[in-house]
Each structure stands twice: as C-alpha cells, then as structure tokens.
Amino acid sequence: xxxxxxxxxxxxFGDQSSLLVCETDAFALNAVVVSRHNKQLKVDFTxxxxxxxxxxxxxxxxxxxxxxxxxxxxxxxx
Length: 78
Fold this sequence. Notes:
Strands 1-2-3 form a three-stranded antiparallel β-sheet. The chain has two helices and three strands. It is globular. By secondary structure, the chain is an alpha+beta fold. It has one domain (3-67). It has helices at residues 3-9, 54-67; strands at residues 18-24, 29-37, 40-49.
C-alpha cells in the first residue's frame, strides 16, 4: 500500500494539507497534527492532557498545540 492510497482512506483528508488526530484512554487525551509534505506524512505537533474533564482536556491540548505554532483555525472534532 502506498501513501496516496492511505491518504484516500482517511476521511476528510482529501485536499487538506494537515489533519489533527486525537485519541484518548481513561487517563489522557493525546493529539498529533499530521501534514502532507509532497508524498510523505510528517508529524508537525504533538500535545497531551491528563485533565479528567473532557472539555478541559480539549482546551489544554488546543492551547499546547497553538503554543507550538499550530494555527489550525478550521479544526473539527468528531
């Protein structure tokens, strides 16, 4: 499987140049911003929150990503 076929399987990645991906377990919310550079994927930013309240964890992750220089304005959380 090549990179282009992988990108086609990622919903909403289509024409976008970057994608914010979050995953959670019972203890933390982890986030990563993945960008397409030519035909490669690159991790640009990462963040983690251990807040117990989910809304607070989202706020912390977004703040930490922006402190690193992420400028995602149209991020959608599904």
